[in-house]
């Protein structure tokens, strides 16, 4: 059997050796097609290998009628429509580790070049100027580097910065005090990091939560003369806000490898002498390119030959028998995890999942992985799936405990998820109502009956007349329409919760005024 493989971005020739030497692989390298041309020819291929340039859109995927696997030779999969691939049963694999070192080294190169104005000085020299006054830099030693996102690359950058005798302070939703102590760095909230740092480097994925994480308000709380680096993803920093912050002299320098729109030839940030930039070169080393190409090539060969893959991004690996019995709970389990990721704050230390009733008589591990997927996705992004969710939880150091009991607890089946964080314990329970779909039936100790979908608002308040009215009036003022409402309490006159379904997406900032109202204790936006 012969498989047709299309490589549509430049990959290392050494790196695709596993593909070249495998039997039955017909490899076509075509890195010049327009999106329209790619859409025309993709139907002939079993596998597509890309970097970040090829946009693997829904249209391309839908035209890929023979496509079985998409390999991303790198980390970010934001150029691939994962939903479309999953819907079409196409597995997406990436190479998450192969370019970590190169991206970290590039970040350090940008940091040092920026601090010592090396690109600007070089340009001046090339223009036949011997100018020693215009390019006075600053030392890194004893300065503070703020790292936002301490994953693979962020942690490598932090280690290197310590080698430069810098102090490092980091924020990552999965960073605990103990982990920070082991790494010899400080930890704090995003605000702590932004306030303390002389240099700030971002290393998060680009997600709804991280888009414009560094915005006008963030610049305002930073030190005067702060310098910023982005070697992660364009869009984490609001480019207009960065421009204004540089012009107003709040920010003394910016080093950018990635941009909101790529590629480009003209960019207003590049008109500023304080900005240095590279055209998305973080992973562009011989070593990284060979390594990521080897990793995806091995996975492509293995998958096409019916084997396992090392780095699945969207694979749902559930056996048919298990699938038949537990598939109805898949969506609910993910929603319970997602619900708790918004409800709980602090660093997650432990997840307890209680299965009771009939469902508990099955192998529920795929449901547990799906719950973890829901829980982790908000911070780790779309590459978390039911296959890699447990692996990621283990890597982060989250203890996961499955508890099973065939006792029914009032429902035929009940899934209860409990998350222990550094700030306490939160719990949510859900079930499937015969013919009526999924319901959340308990939040912490409060009984409710909520459809787990759309935009929800959790509000904790005192159980007394007027609370609902005050909340309704304030939401009306903000033009937030309430579609459904549930109130739950354990004792009359004690604490109670409201669960609202609202018509539009809001974040916690949008509803922060609710907790200023009398007897309203907590207001949390939950997007399912
Ligand atoms: N410039 C390049 O060529 C290049 C090369 C490789 C990777 N990247 C990009 O670098 C970034 C990091 O890659 P990685 O391999 O280290 O990923 P990773 O998944 O190992 O780490 C990302 C970290 O960001 C954290 N995070 C998520 N939301 C956050 C938030 N709101 N605030 C703070 N932290 C948050 C996560 O908890 C995680 O620890 C990605 O965007 C990736 O696409 C760029
Ligand atoms: O996400 C990544 O791996 C990097 O952004 C590298 O992208 P590239 O493969 O296009 O260089």
From TrEMBL:
Catalytic activity annotation: (2R)-3-phosphoglycerate + NAD(+) = 3-phosphooxypyruvate + NADH + H(+); (R)-2-hydroxyglutarate + NAD(+) = 2-oxoglutarate + NADH + H(+)
Metabolic or biological pathway, per its Swiss-Prot or TrEMBL entry: Amino-acid biosynthesis; L-serine biosynthesis; L-serine from 3-phospho-D-glycerate: step 1/3
Species this chain originates from: Sporosarcina siberiensis
Family stated for the protein in its record: Belongs to the D-isomer specific 2-hydroxyacid dehydrogenase family.
Keywords assigned: Amino-acid biosynthesis, NAD, Oxidoreductase, Serine biosynthesis
Protein name: D-3-phosphoglycerate dehydrogenase
Organism superkingdom: Bacteria
Transmembrane segments: none
Alphabetized PANTHER family for the sequence: D-ISOMER SPECIFIC 2-HYDROXYACID DEHYDROGENASE FAMILY PROTEIN (AFU_ORTHOLOGUE AFUA_6G10090) (PTHR42789)
Enzyme Commission designation: 1.1.1.95
Keyword Amino-acid biosynthesis: yes
An MF annotation (GO) of this entry: phosphoglycerate dehydrogenase activity
Domain ACT: residue ranges: 456-528
Enzyme class per UniProt: oxidoreductase
InterPro entries xrefs: ACT-like_dom_sf, ACT_dom, ASB_dom_sf, D-2-hydroxyacid_DH, D-isomer_2_OHA_DH_cat_dom, D-isomer_DH_CS, D-isomer_DH_CS1, D-isomer_DH_NAD-bd
Role: Catalyzes the reversible oxidation of 3-phospho-D-glycerate to 3-phosphonooxypyruvate, the first step of the phosphorylated L-serine biosynthesis pathway. Also catalyzes the reversible oxidation of 2-hydroxyglutarate to 2-oxoglutarate.
UniProt xrefs under Gene3D superfamilies: 3.30.70.260, D-3-phosphoglycerate dehydrogenase, domain 3, NAD(P)-binding Rossmann-like Domain
């Amino acid at each position: 059997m012969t498989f047709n493989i299309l490589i549509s971005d430049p990959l290392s020739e050494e790196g695709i050796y596993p593909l070249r030497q495998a039997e039955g692989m017909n490899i076509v390298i075509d890195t010049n097609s327009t999106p329209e041309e790619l859409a025309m020819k993709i139907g002939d291929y079993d596998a597509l290998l890309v970097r970040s340039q090829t946009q693997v859109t829904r249209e391309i995927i839908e035209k890929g009628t023979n496509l079985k696997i998409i390999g991303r030779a790198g980390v970010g999969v934001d150029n691939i429509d994962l939903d479309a691939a999953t819907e079409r049963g196409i597995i997406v694999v990436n190479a998450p580790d192969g370019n970590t070192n190169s991206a970290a080294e590039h970040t350090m190169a940008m940091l040092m070049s920026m601090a010592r104005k090396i690109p600007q000085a070089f340009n001046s020299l090339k223009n036949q100027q011997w100018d020693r006054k215009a390019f006075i830099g600053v030392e890194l030693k004893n300065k503070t580097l703020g790292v936002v996102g301490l994953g693979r690359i962020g942690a490598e950058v932090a280690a290197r910065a310590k080698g430069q005798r810098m102090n490092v302070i980091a924020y990552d939703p999965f960073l605990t005090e103990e982990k920070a102590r082991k790494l010899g760095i400080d930890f704090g909230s995003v605000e702590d990091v932004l306030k303390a740092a002389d240099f700030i480097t971002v290393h998060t994925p680009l997600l709804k939560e991280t888009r414009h994480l560094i915005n006008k308000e963030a610049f305002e709380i930073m030190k005067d003369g702060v310098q910023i680096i982005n070697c992660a993803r364009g869009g984490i920093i609001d480019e207009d806000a960065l421009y204004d912050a540089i012009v107003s002299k709040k920010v003394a320098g910016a080093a950018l490898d990635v941009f909101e729109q790529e590629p480009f030839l003209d960019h207003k940030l590049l008109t500023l002498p304080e900005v240095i930039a590279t055209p998305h070169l973080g992973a562009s080393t011989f070593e990284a390119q060979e390594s990521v190409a080897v990793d995806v090539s091995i996975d492509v060969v293995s998958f096409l030959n019916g084997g396992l893959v090392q780095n699945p991004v969207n694979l749902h690996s559930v056996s048919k028998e298990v699938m038949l019995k537990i598939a109805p709970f898949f969506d609910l389990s993910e929603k319970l995890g997602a619900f708790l990721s918004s409800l709980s704050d602090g660093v997650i230390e432990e997840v307890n999942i209680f299965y009771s009733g009939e469902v508990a008589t099955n192998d529920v591990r795929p449901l547990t992985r799906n719950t973890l997927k829901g829980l982790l996705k908000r911070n780790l992004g779309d590459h978390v799936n039911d296959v890699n969710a447990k692996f990621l939880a283990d890597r982060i150091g989250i203890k996961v405990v499955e508890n099973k009991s065939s006792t029914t607890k009032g429902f035929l089946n009940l899934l209860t998820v409990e998350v222990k964080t550094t700030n306490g314990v939160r719990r949510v329970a859900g079930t499937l109502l015969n013919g009526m779909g999924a319901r959340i039936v308990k939040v912490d100790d409060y009984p409710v009956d909520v459809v787990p979908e759309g935009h929800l608002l959790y509000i904790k308040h005192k159980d007394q007349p007027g609370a609902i009215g005050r909340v309704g009036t304030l939401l009306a003022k903000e033009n937030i329409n309430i579609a459904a409402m549930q109130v739950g309490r354990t004792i009359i006159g004690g604490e109670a919760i409201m669960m609202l379904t609202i018509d539009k997406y809001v974040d916690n900032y949008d509803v922060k005024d609710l907790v200023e109202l009398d007897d309203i204790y907590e207001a949390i936006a939950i997007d399912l």
